[in-house]
Amino acid sequence: MRSRRLQILVALVLTALWGASIFAAHANGHLRFLDRLEATLTDWRTQARGVRRPPDLVTIVAIDDTVVKRGGSYPLPRADLARVVDTIVQFKPKVVGIDLLLVDRSAAIGDATLANTLATGPMVLAAAAIFPSASETVDPSSEGPLAVLPQAERFLQPLPAFADHAEVGVVNVATGQSGSPLSVPMLFRTRDKVELSFPLRVAARALDKPLTVAPDHLMLGDRAVPTDGDLALPITYYGPRRTIRTVSAQSIFDGTLDRAAIENRIVVIGASVAGGGDFYPTPFDSLMPGVEVVSTAITHLVAGDAMVRDRRVRIADALTAILLPMLLVGLLAWRRSAPGIMTAAAVMIAWAGVNLFAFTHGVWLNAATTLAAAMPPVAVFAGVQLWAGGRRTQYFAAKSRSLAQFQAPAVQEWLARDPNFLSKPVRQDAAVVFVDLSGFTGLSERIDPDELRNLLKALHALVDKAAIDCGGMITGFLGDGAMILFGLPRAMPDDAARALKCAIDLHRGIERWIASLPPAIAGQLGFKIGAHCGPIVASRLGESHQHITATGDTVNVASRLMEIAAQNDARLALSDTLLDNADFSGAPDGVLSGPLLAQVRGRSGVVAVWFWRDRDGPDQASTKAEMIG
């Protein structure tokens, strides 16, 4: 027992170390395959949550295919863009964000017109961060809270003629391994400069609140904006494209723009023309315009409904990655059979439910890291348990074979005096009792091997005691049954009487033992006993391992009497021959029913069979038997 407890303790410690190492490795930028898994699981959770109505704060003015068909070219001429901006400003929005990179010069008149228009209202222009590789980098030598920011080579800024009349924000988003944007960095840096993101600039201007950057969150006025570890804003999509209010810029050229769609609202101008803008896959849409991704981040910032994935959530992720695998392994160690597996499965389902519930309520708990922390140790431990269970089964099978060597004390003494006892077969009279459990094979497939061993151990002890008390010899334990012989080392006048007493004692003892078992086990077990007497052939069998056994028609009849008992709803079947030789005339505490003339399988002729039960016992001989009697 102490050895097993030590093994479980070692397994739990190794499981905890595995979970901690998986979480630490992923948190430090390794195990990137988990990011792809997390992105997939995030898509599933978003779809399970379903489409949500976004706070009606933002209007997207889309430069779409209709606009391009009207103008015949893309990008939109600066003069036309100036007209779009001028019309929007006249309807007095809170702020206008232009999600277009105005980095190249065009016609002088158009640039001048747009520059003058930008000066007429609150504007935020888009800039782009240029990175040295496909992935954003962080300088490990940096210190302070800004060390976690993505470091760019440079910023691609709007032309000075435009930037002089507006604020500027970096429009880059961070895509996951699946290509879907999962977060938007709030700040970017080069070696000598820090820039705010486009959504943060727009939101700060719309709220007209001071911005404060803390190590693990942002403050817009007195409201905290929880961010991820790298000061990125996690985003979750409200629905497919155009879930956020969207109008075509063509309505401006047609003079049909609804003032209510602009006035006192945040307006974002961006491209949604096919082949002319950024598009990203999302859980609801295979191609969502980048302007709607940016507008989703702006809505999160202004409405305060962004996903929470801050330091506290990271701590919860770390604890889950350590404690959940330990709990699962502990459950498998505690209950190694089907109940343990079912309990562990229920815990995993509960964890998945909690994870989904938290996600739908705005808390983004990591799922991929937890699965990577839990699945390998559980699989390894379950495999080891199965292997160990197989070894235990083999061990108990060997023990069962060893128990078959058991000999009654009288036979042991006789063998000590005469080592050649039964070296040659001997024919003599004897009484034979067979006992066997019913339902044991099916039960063994559903219970823990330790419980199985304990059941066999208890049964063997009970049979052993009954045989010894009555002077019988157990010639073999046949798994969940046994054969007991009365008449060795030599035949005795009371062999039949002692066999009858042993059979009745077994009936009562096994009946009480089954009743004492848990109901789930007791309800599946039964037993049957057959007893007969007559001539047998006793001999030794085997070479290196020898055991004493008996063969002949008497043995066959005694064994078949168990079948007859079961067929007639009885537990103890006795041959008429045994009762005659035992001079049995009944007992005040038992009921004898019969005789039943029964055909024994594999034998010609019939046998007169009697069925015995306790007077107050539960089993009854069949009505058929009593009628014949």
What does this entry look like structurally?
There is one protein chain. With 629 residues, the chain is α+β, with helices and mostly antiparallel strands. Helices cover 44% and strands 21% of the residues. The chain contains 20 helices and 25 strands. Strands 18, 19, 20, 21, 22, 23, 24 and 25 form an eight-stranded mixed β-sheet that branches. Strands 1, 2, 3, 4, 5, 14 and 15 form a seven-stranded mixed β-sheet that branches. Strands 6-7-13 form a three-stranded antiparallel β-sheet, covered by helices on one side. Strand 11 and strand 12 (223-226) form a beta hairpin. The protein is rod-shaped. The chain starts with a helix and ends with a helix. 40% of the residues are buried.
